[in-house]
Structure prediction request, 315 residues.
Amino acid sequence: MKGIKIRGIGRQVPNHIVTNDDMARIVDTNDEWITTRTGIRHRHHCTVENHTDLCVGAARAALERANVTPDQIGACIVATVTAENQVPSAACMLQRELELPEDIPCFDLNAACTGFLFALHTMECLLNASPRKYGLVIGADVLSRIINWSDRGTCILFGDGAGAAIVECREEWPSIGAVLGARGDDSILQVPGIGTPAEPVVRMEGTKVFKFAVETVPRCMDQVLARHGITPMEVDFFVFHQANTRIVDLIAKKYAIPQEKYYTNLDEYGNTSAASIPLVLSELEEQGKIGPGKRILTVGFGGGLTWGGALIQFA
Ligand code: UT7
Prediction:
């Protein structure tokens, strides 16, 4: 099997910033509680922009950094739970906006906050069977559209954003060796859809999801390390789904990961669901902390329930 590496990464977030003090004007909360319990200080919410704008902005930035043109793309996957429309998919809208070739698969994928990793793995499989070698993988969500504004336990958590990766597939590169999992469970995290009478807003039992995360991430991490035959010491950077700094810090402590080898951007963006991992990758790449030659272990988890991990490299 041929493997993929990231050739270019880009991001787009909406301009409008919502502070913790802004949240305190909507629900009974305060900056101190939100900061200490989650690490979040701001989140960016769409006002004038929409989901397609974020996807297009992130994709254009990634194409430019990769020095790849839209006609070279062999498949496009958008991981999301908040596309503008059920049909056409966000990926089909991108085909139009970016003028991607018409003879390639473009589709959306729903694995909630684990979506970007599910999409990377799916892209690796697709490119193995494609005559074209580049793929466009996007994680994008506009969770501000599905927030329950009367639930202080969830509404303070979420932000909007998109991260895009241009990946390249080559015979001589190793597979990202993704470890993915799913367990159907609508009891602790759910967004109702077509056919249910409930409002289509996020419903989450935070403490139970927190417990799921701290149990699942290490198991998934161990599986990725075993699959690649490496130890945590041999990993250059760890990128975790950004749901809560307490979750990230607990995992880092468990594996004795030094501060300079992991990163959080929750203070600025909050939890951006499928966009969370590519947003981190994009910021780290821009800061020169990751790039060619570095091994990046990434782990995500979220609704479904879903989880996943992979060892990512840049070309
Ligand atoms: O990306 C998808 C995956 N999602 C996650 O991974 C989320 C994981 N869960 C979490 O991050 C945390 O569970 C939360 C941040 C959502 C909640 O933190 P917690 O420490 O689990 O708090 P809690 O829900 O147990 O609530 C503790 C107290 C409660 O008050 P009482 O019953 O002790 O009086 C809540 O009513 O904090 C109260 N509370 C708040 N207080 C002020 C809950 N939300 C707020 C708030 N401001 N926004």
Notes: Residues 206-228 form the longest helix (23 residues). Residues 252 and 258 are 7 Å apart (CA to CA).
